[in-house]
Sequence to fold (324 residues):
Amino acid sequence: MATIDHAVTALRAGELIAFPTETVYGLGANAADADAVARIFALKGRPPDHPLIVHIRAQDQLQQWAADIPPVAARLAAKFWPGPLTLILPRAAHVNTVVTGGQDSIGIRVPAHPIAQQLLGAFGGAIAAPSANRYGRLSPTSAAHVREEFGDAVRIVLDGGESPIGLESTIVACLGNVARLLRPGVITRTQIEQIVGRLAEGGGDAPRAPGDRPQHYAPFTPLELIGGDRIEASAAEFSSGERKIAVLAMRPAARPLTHVTWVDAGAKPANYAHNLYHHLRTLDRLGCTRILVEVPPAREEWSAVLDRLQRASAQDRPVGMDCG
Ligand code: TXA
Ligand code: MG
Fold:
């Protein structure tokens, strides 16, 4: 089994590794090695203008990567790091723009997962890491998911079991002392606003955000969001003619349905989020014509789940291709 020592040796040699974080697994490279970072883009099939998050061990390494850190960012870092929060900050002048996708800003996060912490501590430097999946696909929440994505192309996968949170970090851009939510996550808007006051709204001159392409975090099977009161009827309708249908619901089925695989993911947001990508990967393997997903409640604790489901259901996603 791969150890932290193996991973550190590989990072120093410019190799890519995968490692667990509390949100999802990351595909990591030495952030200071532009060639290694370029390998991340190549392996993921990610466009070069789509910036990576730089993971550091602690806030005291922030100055090495970001410049002119606005007070709002310092307050958020003090409150939520280590943890599932990524801050977009003005980048330090020397930072190689391969990492930042050519932008003048940089995404930084201090992960809380003990293995990520040990890895960063032993390595000493920073690790650039997107989620360890092919571009546009579901993020991995276990070492097995990483293997599904990359097989032997990633030699070292540190296994930390299932990622406890299961959804990617909350991203807040802090540029010009204005904070803006770019990607919802388990740390909610309300929690952020308690620290920095009201967040700025809208795109404005916001930097390139993870939502640039809507069809993210997607399974291959077309995914559709359906109101809870219509699921049984929709599943029955779509499965006519013996078509196989998958359902991801928040409760058991009210009546038996043929040709329908029904998963009850429960109605507890943290638990649902923890299992979401695992469920979608499982349902995606069944060869169904559709995955029907019960729309979660319009409450803040569901906002990150809803965001990922909406992206996964985006219509313009070419089906069955490794893209988006
Ligand atoms: O939880 C997470 O954030 C995981 C773990 C591994 O840390 N990482 C992750 O990375 O989700 P990735 O690359 O899959 O998503 C990061 C998003 C990207 O969509 C990117 O657009 C955005 O962060 N991002 C990074 N740097 C940025 C920047 N300078 N400006 C705007 N967005 C940025
Ligand atoms: Mg990703």
